[in-house]
Structures are given as C-alpha cells and as structure tokens.
Amino acid sequence: MTAAAPSAPHLFYEPKVSVLSRPAFESPEHMAVLWQGESTDGERLAEFAGRLCYMSQHNPAGRSTRDYLENIKKQGHGSVLEHANYSLLLEGVSRSLTHELVRHRAGFAYSQLSQRYVDESEACFVVPPAIAGDELLEGAWRAQIGSAQNTYVSLVAQLMERYGWVADKVHRRKMAREAARGVLPNSTETKIVVTGNARAWRTMLELRSSEGAELEIRRLAVLVIRVLQAEAPGFFSDFEIYEAADRREAARIGYHKV
Ligand SMILES: Cc1cc2nc3c(=O)[nH]c(=O)nc-3n(C[C@H](O)[C@H](O)[C@H](O)COP(=O)(O)OP(=O)(O)OC[C@H]3O[C@@H](n4cnc5c(N)ncnc54)[C@H](O)[C@@H]3O)c2cc1C
C-alpha cells in the first residue's frame, strides 16, 4: 500500500487559550455575606468559604472581595482558593510542553488528545520560540519535521498491512498509530483541557512563568496569567509580567505559595 504524502504541515507560533468553565456561585439566603466592591462568582465563592471559617459574613472590616482575597494571599490561607476551578482549552502547544505541564498534579485534571486514536498524518507542529524567525534554524527544523511526518504516514500504511489479520479496524488503526507515533517529534502540536483550582494554577504559573522555565511553557504561562487575571483578579493580580533580560516576557508572583 502506498501512502499519500501529507501537505505542508500547519505551524503554530503562538499558543491559543480558551476559557471553558468558571465557577457559578449561588449565595445562600440564610447566610448572606455583606459583599463590597466588584467581583466574579469564583472570587465570591472563595470569600464565602473563607468567611465561613470565622462566621464573619457581616464583613466587620468592610473589605471588598478583592481586598479580602489579597489578605488571604498575604496570610497564606490558600486553601480557600481551592474552591474556585477554571477549565482552559490549550491548543497550539507541543507534546514536550504538555509533558512538563502534567507534572503539576495537586488540584489539576487533564484530558489530552490521544496519539493512539487520532491520525497524525496532518498533524500541526509548534515552532520552538528560540528557533522561530531564524531562517537557518527554522529551515533545518522544518526539514526534520517534514521528514518525520512522511515517515509516520508511511509507517502507518505498512503497519495497517502488517496487522491485516486484526478484524477490528479501529483496533488495527490504533496498533498502527501507537507504533508509528514513535517517529513524531516533541514539537508535534497537541490539545489539552486543563482544569485547576486557583491555588493550583498559582503554583504552576509561578514555576512556569519564571525566567528559569523552558521558553514555550513560559510563553504559555504568561498568556494564562493574562487570561486568568481578566477572569478573577482577586486570585491572580499579584502576578507581575515583565520583560526579562532575554527580551522575552516572564512573570513574578507577589505572594509565594499561599
Ligand atoms: C524550571 C523547571 C525545571 C524542571 N526540570 C525537571 C527535570 O529536569 N526533571 C524532572 O523530572 N522534573 C523537572 N521539573 C519538574 C518538577 O520537578 C516538578 O515535577 C514540577 O515542577 C511540578 O511541581 P510540584 O511537584 O511542586 O507540583 P504539584 O504536583 O502541582 O504539587 C504542588 C505542591 O503540592 C505538594 N505536593 C504535591 N504532591 C505531593 C506529594 N505526593 N507529596 C507531598 N507533597 C505534595 C507540594 O508542596 C507541591 O509543591 C522541572 C520544573 C521546573 C519548573
């Protein structure tokens, strides 16, 4: 069986982040909090949980929700942040990035595109930030990507023949793809749904937006900080994004590990 050569692969130069889910808070009538200031459901949920600990719903200090959460972060009372979960769809990220990302365990859930089930003949690839824009480096990288994808397509076709005796075609394809994917590079694009509570996101973002982090995950972390700061400033406003000495963005956190 001959395999059709894939068309030139689509390349990603930036990740894409979409918010899939955010908390919906219902204030119980019998335990009303004296809310102050602007806030989102996720922020009110955390304030409600925090106030329950001391039954301070009457808000004796007259704090706004965001000031209350600022104090929570300052005091390191981070467990109340665990009530607010945010689900993000990440696209245009590489398999090497998600390999690092899924090391963050506490408070996270992941669902990632399967290379055993999904055909990667038309896979996209993520140009490593340090290579992007450099003609020579990018040329060498593209040549390798193209060759790997051609080999993948050819291997799948040959493996489908080799496993012709497997009656279930879905299973046969899975057997072929799971072996052929061995030649796909770390730069292969993937998609992943990540759900994390605000405390878990903060820990991950602190580590991965720092200057010591790998460039692609650092770029993603900076973007996620922007997205989550817009979602819930009370949880994420202490992240400061700046341009580092390497002329790329990084971020530092105000309250380390709450
Ligand atoms: C710059 C950088 C370089 C790295 N290089 C490497 C490398 O070369 N090789 C490598 O293997 N990894 C590497 N890592 C990954 C690193 O070792 C961690 O696996 C990753 O950062 C996740 O951190 P975490 O375990 O603190 O996160 P999480 O799993 O999200 O945990 C968050 C926090 O919860 C607590 N916690 C979670 N699980 C447990 C547990 N089982 N027991 C007790 N407390 C727990 C800890 O306080 C932990 O800090 C690197 C990470 C970074 C940021």
Largest sheet: 4 strands, antiparallel
Average pLDDT rating = 95
Radius of gyration: 23 Å
Distance between the termini: 58 Å
Percentage of residues in strands: 15-25%
Structural class, from helix and strand content? alpha+beta
How many individual helices?
8
**Low-pLDDT runs:** none
* Helix percent band: 40-55%
Bound molecules: flavin-adenine dinucleotide
| Widest beta sheet: strand line-up | 2-3-6-4
The secondary-structure element order is EEHHEHEEHHEHHHEE
Number of strands: 8
The global form is elongated
What does this 3D model show about the protein?
This protein is α+β, with helices and mostly antiparallel strands and 258 residues long. It has a domain of 60 residues. Helix content is 40%, strand content 17%. The strands form three sheets. A four-stranded antiparallel beta sheet has the order 2-3-6-4. A two-stranded parallel sheet has the order 1-5. A hairpin with a 5-residue loop joins strand 7 and strand 8. The chain is elongated, with a radius of gyration of 23 Å. Bound molecules: flavin-adenine dinucleotide. Flavin-adenine dinucleotide (FAD) binds next to helix 6. The site of flavin-adenine dinucleotide has 9 residues, from helix 6.
